[in-house]
Design a protein that fits this description.
The complex is a heterodimer.
Chain A lengths: L3 H8 L7 E5 L5 H10 L2 E6 L2 H10 L3 E3 L14 E7 L8 H11 E9 L4 H8 L24 H10 L3 E9 L2 E3 L3 H4 L2 E7 L1
Parallel strand pairs in A: 1-2, 1-4, 2-3, 4-5
Antiparallel strand pairs in A: 5-8, 6-7, 6-8
Chain B lengths: L27 E5 L3 E2 L5 E2 L2 E8 L9 E5 L31 E2 L4 E2 L4 E5 L31 H15 L6 E5 L1 H12 L6 E5 L7 H15 L9 H4 L4 H15 L2 H7 L49 H16 L2 H13 L10 H4 L6 E7 L7 H13 L4 E6 L13 H15 L11
Parallel strand pairs in B: 5-8, 5-9, 6-7, 9-10, 10-11, 11-12
Antiparallel strand pairs in B: 1-4, 2-3, 4-8
Helix pairs in contact in B: 1-2, 3-5, 3-8, 5-7
Classes of the chains: A alpha/beta, B alpha/beta.
Chain lengths: ~190, ~425
């Protein structure tokens, strides 16, 4: 999630001083922000060599692990908050990971591209998969192997027994609280187990 | 346990053309007269440690980095030794020369790096080839069994002697990684950071098994004489050769061996003695690249004892070379130290409980094709540190070179170490030493 506004918005959901686990932490920017601005501690998990190195350059704790191997490394309720920011859509075992996120964290924050955002709907109505700023890939080379909607996630969260504490959409750096499934390019959920 | 890396990037020859003035280093000897109690219950009455240092210790002694060595390495970590004219001796560079030095991942313009040879070694610190003061004879098999913990105790005394209270970092690979881990448990308040590379919280049964085969090769050599071969004026070279051959196989990966040697056969006409040929791609001074007969389609020799395949020649060469400079009793002692290391043992096998004492920040690194100290073993340490809520980073480098990868200069690996030192280790050091 490159957008700084979006990062700050998500960071505000994390209580100061929390112990956090950031799954798919990328270059560690969010973790560094949480450390510097909200006195959080914790770890990022990342598989990509270059991103792991970027984290080390920021001085944040990073663990080079494959999320597809699960979270057996982490104990139950080991973290105050587990973050999955733009990670869910890359995971083959997305449901398992969601359940695991809930197991290792007292709270979870998930953000992912909302496929039901109206420009995407429009593209599909025209018979084409969407290519947008938020979903910039052609269907045949996208790393997003799971596409889901804001509304879909509510269903999955319920079936996983998660209690949604807050949820909203994000678009162009703005919080979208009315009709997020239609009007937001990003879906954000904060839940407890 | 460093093996001599295979050809290609693994060979690090100093060349005058490389532009950077080589760092010349001279070993120092520290003598300790206070007896050292050992884990076995034995006591080493007095001992010497061979030490090399690189860089400058800053005024508040906050930039000291201790490097722990693995099986067949020494205090000679980096830089070159000089000849009588003060000129660098070719191929005398330290075993972690690609990692440590001015401007390198562990930058000796900033860090004061200490290399120390472990007790029981054959490279200068007190060991089984030295004279036992009680008998006036070489210690031989009577040299007491030393453990990783004993080595760390001796290293701590060395720091006392050097006036260094706290280490900015301890770093080591393989058996050196075990010492690094042990430092954080034995002297938690003296270690700020621990860099543990290609290591494990203990050896698996398979790993002990390899060590045992190596030891049996040595002990059953008729020249071993119960470990008192020096008194007999002999050396158990055959045993050492085989021990090294076994070790060497385990430090490589199937892929890298296949790529390097495959099923290539060996011509028997190179200058070196039969079965003692240099590896493919070796420096010409060692006999030149070994030709193979694959392209010529030459037939097998149908011999059970001649060298037929290049891999055989390579292993024999490595074994021969090793047997000329390494001491058999040292090999036994060091493999035993590996076997014994198991900090979780005092905690009913609970590594997390064992690591509760550690307060250092950790960087762990493993290599995907290392089957002797596999990534899974490093992850066990990571997990135990997580359970103790310790600061830890972990990089798993996808490299083809097996255990030897920790001695090679993979750019991702070195970048990880460099960034960790620059960002995390340096964050705790107030002043920067700059010179030259």
């Amino acid at each position: 999630m490159a957008d700084v506004n979006v990062m700050h918005r998500i960071a505000r959901l994390v209580p100061p001083g929390s112990r956090v686990l950031d799954l798919g932490c990328g270059d560690g920017a969010l973790l560094a922000h949480l450390r510097d601005e909200r006195q959080c501690t914790g770890y990022g998990v990342e598989i990509d060599d270059a991103k792991v190195h970027a984290c080390l350059k920021r001085g944040v704790n990073v663990l080079q692990l494959n999320l597809e191997d699960g979270l057996s490394m982490f104990g139950d309720d080991a973290f105050d908050v587990v973050l999955q920011i733009d990670t869910l859509q890359h995971l083959r075992n997305a449901e398992t990971m969601l359940r695991e996120t809930a197991r290792v964290g007292r709270a979870g924050i998930v953000a992912f591209p909302n496929f039901a955002h109206w420009p995407n709907r429009l593209a599909v109505l025209q018979g084409r998969m969407p290519v947008t700023k938020r979903l910039p890939y052609q269907w045949y080379d996208t790393p997003n192997i799971r596409v889901g909607t804001y509304a879909d996630f509510e269903v999955l969260a319920r079936s996983c027994g998660l209690r949604i504490e807050d949820s909203f959409g994000l678009h162009e750096g703005q919080e979208i609280r009315s009709l997020p499934n239609l009007l937001a390019s990003t879906a954000v959920f904060k839940f407890n187990n | 346990m460093p093996g001599l890396p295979l050809g290609g990037p693994g060979f690090l020859f100093w060349s005058p053309a490389c532009g950077v003035k080589p760092v010349i280093v001279t070993p120092q000897t520290f003598r300790f007269s206070e007896p050292l109690p050992l884990r076995s219950g034995a006591v080493l009455p007095a001992y010497e440690l061979k030490v090399e240092t690189y860089g400058i210790l800053n005024a508040d002694q906050s930039n000291a980095v201790l490097i722990c060595h693995a099986l067949n390495a020494s205090h000679h970590v980096a830089g070159f030794h000089a000849d009588e004219h003060g000129q660098p001796i070719a191929r005398s560079e330290g075993w972690w020369h690609n990692m440590i030095g001015p401007g390198k991942a562990v930058d000796t313009n900033r860090w004061f790096v200490i290399g120390v040879n472990n007790l029981g070694s054959c490279f200068g610190s007190t060991g089984p080839s030295h004279t036992n003061p009680a008998t006036g004879q070489p210690w031989g098999a009577d040299f007491p069994v030393v453990t990783v913990e004993d080595w760390v105790d001796a290293q701590a005394r060395l720091l006392d002697a050097m006036g260094i209270r706290t280490l900015a970092a301890v770093m080591g690979g393989s058996l050196g990684g075990m010492q690094t881990l042990s430092w954080t448990l034995q002297y938690p308040d003296r270690v700020r950071h621990a860099v543990v590379v290609a290591s494990a919280p203990n050896l698996t049964a398979e790993n002990i098994a390899f060590n045992e085969v190596a030891r049996r090769a040595i002990v059953t050599d008729p020249d071993f004489h119960g470990g008192h071969y020096l008194r007999e004026g002999t050396l158990p070279r055959r045993g050492l050769r085989i021990a090294r051959m076994i070790g060497h196989i385990t430090y490589l990966s199937d892929d890298v061996m296949n790529e390097k040697f495959g099923r290539k056969t060996q011509t028997p006409t190179l200058p070196a003695a039969r079965g003692s040929l240099p590896p493919e791609g070796a420096d010409p001074a060692w006999g030149g690249p070994a030709p193979d007969r694959v392209s010529a389609g030459e037939p097998y020799r149908y011999s059970t004892q001649d060298v037929e395949f290049q891999i055989e020649s390579y292993l024999r060469y490595q074994g021969d070379k090793f047997s000329e400079y390494f001491d058999a009793n040292t090999y036994l002692l060091i493999t035993r130290a590996l076997d014994y290391f198991d900090p979780a043992r005092e905690h009913d096998g609970n590594l997390s409980a064992a690591l509760a004492r550690a307060t250092a920040k950790f960087l762990l690194i493993s290599f995907s094709t290392d089957w002797r100290f596999s990534p899974a073993r490093s992850r066990e340490i990571v997990k135990a540190l997580l359970e103790n809520k310790r600061d830890v980073s972990y990089a798993e480098i996808d490299a083809p070179h097996g255990h030897d990868a920790f001695l090679l200069d993979d750019p991702r690996y070195h970048a990880a170490v460099r960034s960790y030192f620059e960002q995390t280790v340096a964050a705790a050091v107030p002043a920067e030493v700059t010179h030259g």
